[in-house]
Amino acid sequence: MLVLIGFLGILLFIVLLARNTTIMPAAFIIVIMLIPLCLGISPQEISTFITDGIASTATLGIMAAFAILFFTLMNKLGVFDAIVGGITQRIGTHIYPVLLATMLVSICSHLDGQAPSTILVTIPALYPFYKKLRIRPVVLTFILSAVVGIWSFLPWGSVTLTNSVVMGLDVLVIWQELLPSLLCMTGLMALVLVGTAYTEKKRIAAGLNNDVTYDSMFQFSGEELPERAKKLLPFNVVLTVAVLALLFLNIVNTVVVFMVGYTIAILVNYRTMKEQMAHFSENASTALMICLAMVLGGVFGNVLNGSGVLTAMISALVSIFPQAWARYLLTIFGALSYPLGCFLGLTAYSFGVTPVINGVASTFGFTTLQSVCALAPGYSMSLMVCPIMPSTHLMLGVAGVDLKTHFRYSGWRLFLLALAFLAITILLGNVPL
């Protein structure tokens, strides 16, 4: 009974998200309440599960909210524009530099950990170069998708945050373990772009790109910062560097760094409460939604654990998994995580599937950190081709590329990159083989 209710509950959660039936917090709460009620657990026990879950993840949720507020503010104040402008000014008129610049700009604009800002900075800034050189826009969406997949492992990135909640690991532990793999993947991506540039050059020479349409929703406006923001730009750059340094050195708790950093930034850059409130209101909905995802994800996991459902599901899977394949368990599921991520999306896969696989892996002697290193790269690479992820549609709308074209071009390439990512984690010893 426990196993059946557990799988039905997770399936319901996946369906609610995949069919866009309701908003994410409501989907969590429906399943959080239904599973223990179906098992006959008393309201008092359910309340304990929920409050304990909130207590275990509240700090992480607050950290995520302040991280978003801080980096969106720095982005608006032009901290990342200076880097982007410096890169785009050096592109020239050759294809490979344009593709490499796309990767570098995407990385810089993804420092806030949010795909929408990466999209809205990268595409308008680089699109004119693609149009001028007749490079297909789908190449731009592929590069951006790959960068988001690789660099969502920043300590405040979506993949790291969800894994921190689900697996009970500190964000900096995940980041430090995977950083060498991220650098290797970035180098590999630069090599992949050599082949991509060669292919585009041949297509252009053969006239195959002559009929390509360029229907971007936006063009780079070149809008200048207000005078006050220009004067404060050096201060904001120093503040951002200081925040990043404190995060990577792990001297102060992450949530404290972002709380203090955001407070200093908003007080220095906005003099009146009206101006401060305008910025806060502009980004509060995104910050709140991600904060709720972290907290409710912790509650969901605590309900599954406290009710005995997760243990029963793990035992059932362990009993049917071939013992001879045990040493390859993480490699097998790591290879499957990309297609599963494309189908389920980040939230459903992270909170619905990952805990079960991790539980099975732990019975065969694998650590939780090893499970993260094996499972997360695949579904991270699927983020921007998953049709149920809003960011995918935002990117395609801004670039003027339809989903079918993007998936046909990028889908298999990102799958190969996901497998390469897994192979690198194995070679570096993050995942045992």
UniProtKB/TrEMBL annotation:
Cellular localisation: Membrane
Gene Ontology biological process terms, A to Z: transmembrane transport
UniProt superkingdom: Bacteria
One GO cellular component term noted in the UniProt record for this chain: membrane
Signal sequence coordinates: none
Membrane-spanning residues: 27-42, 54-74, 94-112, 133-154, 174-194, 232-249, 284-304, 411-431
InterPro entries found in the cross-reference section: Cit_transptr-like_dom
Any matching Pfam family: CitMHS
Keyword terms of this UniProt record: Membrane, Transmembrane, Transmembrane helix, Transport
Topological type in the membrane: Multi-pass membrane protein
Domain Citrate transporter-like: residue ranges: 22-366
Protein name: Citrate transporter-like domain-containing protein
